[in-house]
Design brief:
It contains seven helices and 16 strands. By secondary structure, the chain is α+β, with helices and mostly antiparallel strands. The chain has three domains: about 180 residues, 3-Layer(aba) Sandwich (Rossmann fold); about 55 residues, SH3 type barrels, CATH 2.30.30.280; about 80 residues, Translation factors (Elongation Factor Tu (Ef-tu), domain 3). A hairpin with a 5-residue loop joins strand 13 and strand 14. Helix 1 crosses helix 6. The N and C termini lie far apart (about 45 Å).
């Protein structure tokens, strides 16, 4: 229970379906924010909201301290990735290493065979192949299967997503109001839970990884020096704002971040498009050449592509995709089910 309306309604629906429910919140970050949209899913304020919901539902409630694990596994990864010129998604790493690893182990300790969350996704057991499938949510606009691609068979067998078959977020809020839950109209959190609304991620990097503040050159694709940057960690592929450049009045975008040379390479928007995506680590679920639909960021509509397994797995999209960003995830679907996913190493040459 994150203290938001989604996990609160998930708990309520499980009660209605006859489950014995135990509410659990992971306390992973202790700093409060003044704006609830920036307060994150597991801040001190969120803990109090979750406690009030559990009291209203009449279920046992526990707060588990995962701050050390979160710092070690999520925040350190976040800092390391930026220092290496990649753009991480800490929510994906939190799902991978905290929610569906450490939290599952805690569920074992307190005797709970299943773990449910407020994610918008669905699971289904496929008897034909003796496998669990992760499926898109019915509410297409809220689907979060992209953020769950890393779940393995053992985890999929144990997780439940009660909101997966709801038509939209409005229905979730309507259920919360009907039940009198105190978070029915609470705004969604929209930012990284450990990054303040005042300074943003750049200030967080500056405070926690000052070595990433090494000045260097901004160059074009021919190596011509156009300006200077304050550290490669402050730039991401596709970025236009904040470059401080004016070259013949043309808009310039970040094409590559090169921590080895401490350079940021910029160019035209056209140069951001490529058909090929290469992967930093194992592309889960790929054993042979496959036709799929894929997305290289959460809010991108799935596009047709072909997956190629190998030592460095790759995906080739039928049409060029824009701003393939190292460190982000690419997730692939077939028939509404997640079939593969992995962290992006980079794009091809066009």
């Amino acid at each position: 229970m994150s203290g938001g309306v989604d996990s609160s309604v998930a708990a309520a629906l499980l009660l209605q379906r006859g489950y014995q429910v135990v509410g659990v919140t992971m306390q992973i970050w202790q700093q409060s924010q003044t704006d609830p949209r920036h307060a994150g899913c597991c801040s001190l304020g969120a803990v109090e909201d979750a406690r009030r919901v559990a009291r209203a539902l009449g279920i046992p409630y526990y707060v588990l301290n995962f701050r050390e694990e979160f710092r070690r596994l999520v925040i350190e990864d976040f800092l390391n990735e930026y220092a290496q010129g990649r753009t991480p998604n800490p929510c994906l790493e939190c799902n991978r290493s905290i929610k569906f690893d450490h939290l599952v182990k805690k569920a074992d300790e307190i005797g709970c065979p299943l773990l449910a969350t407020g994610h918008y996704a669905q699971t289904r057991y496929d008897k034909r192949y003796d496998r669990w499938r992760l499926l898109r949510a019915k509410a297409a606009a809220k689907d979060q299967s992209y953020a769950l691609y890393m779940l393995d068979q053992a985890t999929l067998a144990r997780v439940r997503f009660p909101l997966g078959d709801l038509p939209d977020k409005a229905e979730t809020r309507a259920i919360a109001r009907d039940l009198g839950l105190p978070v029915a109209d609470k705004p969604d959190s929209q930012e990284i839970c450990f990054v303040s609304e005042a300074g943003g991620y750049r200030e967080f990097l500056r405070a926690n990884r000052p070595s990433a503040e090494r000045e260097g050159e901004i160059v074009d694709t021919r190596g011509r020096v156009l300006g200077a940057h304050a550290g490669v960690a402050h730039y991401t592929v596709g970025q236009r704002k904040g470059l401080g450049l004016n070259v013949d009045g043309r808009p310039l975008y970040v094409l590559r971040v090169e921590p080895g040379t401490n350079r940021v390479v910029v160019g035209s928007d056209d140069a951001l498009y490529t058909k090929e995506v290469r992967f930093l680590d194992e592309l889960r679920g790929v054993t042979r050449k496959s036709r799929v639909e894929g997305k290289i960021r959460y809010n991108m509509p799935p596009a047709r592509a072909t997956l190629f397994p190998g030592e460095v797995a790759r995906a080739v999209f039928d049409e060029p995709v824009r701003a393939v960003t190292p460190g982000q995830a690419a997730v692939f679907y077939r028939g509404g089910a997640v079939v593969a996913g992995g962290r992006i190493l980079g794009g091809g040459e066009g």
